Structures are given as C-alpha cells and as structure tokens.
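Predict structure. Chain length: 572.
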Amino acid sequence: MLNVGRMLDGGRTPPGIGKVIAWSILASAVLWQAGCAARDGLQASVGTLEPAAITNAPVGSLQGEAEDGVSIYRGIPFALAPVGERRWAPPEAFPDWEGVRQATEFGAACPQPGARPGSIYYERLDEVNEDCLSLNVWVPDGAEDAPVFVWVHGGSLVTGAGSQAMYDGAALARETGLIVVTINYRLGVLGYLAHPELSAESPQNISGNYGLKDQAAALKWVKRNIEAFGGNPDNVTVAGESAGALSVVLLMVSPEARGLFDKAVAESAYMVSMAPLRGTANGHPSAEEAGVAFQEKAKAASLAELREMDADKLVSIAGRNAFVPFGVIDGVWLKDQMPATFDKGEQAQVPVLAGFNEGEIRSLRFLLPPVPGSDAYEAAIRSSHGDLADRFLETYPADNPEASMLATTRDAMYGWTAERLAASQTAAGQPSYFYFFDHTYPAADKLGLRAFHAMEIPYVFGTLFDIAEPWPQAPRKQAERDLMKAMMQYWASFARTGVPSAEGTADWPAYGENATGMVFSETPKAWPGLARARFELHEAIVCRRRAEGSLQWNWNVGIISPPLPPEVPACN
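Prediction complete.
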C-alpha cells in the first residue's frame, strides 16, 4: 500500500504518510464496497403495473410497464456483453432486433465487490454479471419532444448500477415531464484496465477508459432512439453524482463524446489528476505499467489468460491489490488533465449545474488520516504550505482539527471541482449554476451526518421516502416534501431550458462575476460569493502543483500534503 501512496503524490511524502494517502484513495472504494452498490428489494410499495404501449424504436420494438402516469422500460441492452474477446474492448452496439422485446426487468449490474451490510449506502443487488451494458427509461404519459435526463451512477468507478432504488426515475418523470434514463457501465479493473497488449489490439494504439466508452455508447443509443419514446434527442442532459459526476466531467473533456449531450449536471464531482497511458505525468506512473502490474498480481501469463479468468476473481484480485480505476490520458478519449482542457477551452460548450454538500466527508471518514492535536495540526500545515500557511490556517483553523480536516478534504475534492466547473464554463460564455447542499434532519443528525455525501440525490429524484434503512430516514413532513419538490423542479427546468427555476422559491442566479451559488438548507437561498475564498485557496494550491509537474492534487491535502511548490507567475 505504501507504493500506492507514493504514486499518488509523486513519492514526496514523508515515511508513513504514503500509507495514509493510499488508504484515503482506497477508502472511497471501500465505502461503496460496503454497500452503495447493492439492492435488497426493499423499495416502497408501488401501484399496479400494467403493460405499457409498445414503443417502436429504431433499435426494435419494446414492451415495458405502465404505472401511475409513467411507462417504464427496464434492462434495454445498448451494447453486446463485454465477454471473451470483447472483455477490455470498446463497446459493440447491440444489434437491432425484430419482434417485440420485453423490457420489464432490470438488467444485471456490472461485476463489482460484494455488498457489506452496515454502511448507510447498503443496498444488495439482485444480479451481477458481465452481460451488464443496459439502460432503463422512464417516460411520462403524453411525452412529446420532452427533455431527456441521463443519469450516470456513482460508486468510485468500482460499484453501483442504474437500477438502484435511489435512482428510480418514476417520480422525476411524472412530476416534471422529463424522460429519465439510467445506465450501467463497466466498473473497476474490467472497466479501466490499460495494458500494452490491449493497446496493440487497438487501431488507435490505446487502452483503458472502457467504462467511459460505455457511457458514450449509451448516450449514442439515446440520441438514436429516444425520439421514439417522446424525447428530444437535441435536448439531452447528462448528470451524475460522485464517480457519476466525475464521469460527466470526463465526458465534457472528451472529444469522442462531443455532441452527445446538451447540458451537464455534476453533483459532488472530483477533478483529480489522471495517469498517462505511457510515461509519467503529475506524479502518476503510466496506466499501461499499472496494467502489467495487475497481470502479475493475477498470475496470468498473458492477456489471453486474463480474459479467460472469472470476472469475480478479477474483481477480488483488484480489491486486494489496490487497483484504482480512473480515466487515462490516452491522446484520443482524454487528451490532457481535466483542468488543462478547461483552461484551453477545449471542453464541451454546454451549460452546467454543479455543486457539493456540506457534510461530504462525514460519511466518508475513511478519507481522513488520523486526527492530530491542535499543535501537531498547525505544525503540519506550516511545514507543508509555506507562504500559504497563514491563509490556510485562517480558513481551516487549528483549534478544531477534526472539523478543519473534514472541511479541507471536502473543499479540496468536491468544492474546488464544483466551483472550477462553474467558473470555467462561465469564462467560456456558458450559463453556469453553482450550489451548496447544507440540509439535515433528525435521523442524519443522530449519526453526525448533516448533508452527507449523496444525501441530495433522493431530493432530486423524488425518492426521499422510498429508500430503505440503513439510509437515515427522512421525516415525512411538509418541509421535506417542499425541498424535494423545489430541487426536482430546479434540476428539471435546467434540463429543459438551461436555467434552473422552481415555482414559489428563490431565483437561482447564474454563477457570474459575483460567484453566486444557491444554498439548499431548510429552503433554497441565493448567496453571492458563496465559497469563493475557499475555492481561491485550493485553486492556488492546485495551480502550483500543476505547474511543478510531478505532484498530484486533491487526495493528498491538509496535514498529509507534500511541501507546496513556490509561487509561479501563472498562478497569480
């Protein structure tokens, strides 16, 4: 694990700190392995299901189910099963069919670690196998030229599925008129392995990013087929949370995804540095090198042997050996680090809605190193942050190290990313909307989880009262219903027009020169300069690391930060 830690910060941390960083990186995956990616069938009771009208799409005819003003089409394959020679290959479109295909059951989730009860994110999945590249569609009755909302699930690129109860699109479709689509994509080592032999198979001499390619393939399916469901293929919003939001950002910077969506929503994204396919960059060894190391850990003599191995065994080996799935700079799908692509104006020119939660790290405490005393905390910051130490300690003071560390990691990963997206798109002339979710209720407070990571999702989907324990249960009070209704309307109106609005609630100004964000607490409220000072501090830190060239950013922050490089003119 020490080697992983050194990889993450260019090998510059003091002895022992590498383990802390490695644990931090793996913790996100561990948390989701503990359960965000599973299904236990404990959804709230639903109304009577009846056959939906048959939809005749270009790909073929589909029979779904109708319920309470929504037609639901589940488990629609958009690509062939990535097995055999198609394992670690770009997705191959599922062939058109004749006759009527039943679309009443969710497809399998992609291979991933087993769920572990105990986490608030626990939800056991029904079926998991490699034949998993499917999507689900919720269509409101009478849909015609409707905006389309495509959701990319989270889970650290390790776990998750579009069939999770939290992402049920029925309420959002019924209440707002959106067509809602959720997708599956390859995860973990099966979705993000790069390897010299895989690159040699490719006409472009590249490998990795297979999960990202799956997401693009799903969006292509939507473009081709959604009009048959009553959707507008020229009004598609791609959205996601956590690793799903990271995926949204990767789609924004990927030339290969250009034109597949018209707006973007990124909830709690993290724009961390990426490895190059070959060579080294920003403290990362090559992704191909990591792939060869994985092959050795799997005790496989060749790529052919890896393809013959059981998928669950590969997932287990990846988990035991700290394989970290992530985007790879391959020169085709991803050409540069994410911030650099935005700085050059080479990202998708689309409106964006982006934000983060006050308590992101409260449910992700694995991301924190051990909390020191106040003196040790201040000493660590002063030794690593140089001329920015006073500014850092003013923002994240030493009198309460735990609170400051929770805030530091939150802001460095999620807050900086969200505001960077809003600021970058604003600079590019695109409407941008920034938010901060700071809501709570008694069950969350009892666990110390005010506004925890992913807490906003059921407000957006209208599933707040449909999620089973151990998720902290929201009180069935009008205030919760009102906030949920408002957030559904804001997100839906953004998907429809590019401007978020909600009846009877506060106007949501664009980010603009005042860096205005919307705070979702008890009621929505616009707040100029919401997080600007914190953002500018982390932008200065990231800028120096980027300029230095051999340091990663975002994961190794605060008391485990490597020494900050000196100021350079480009970062003024």
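Summary: Confidence is low (pLDDT under 50) at residues 1-46.
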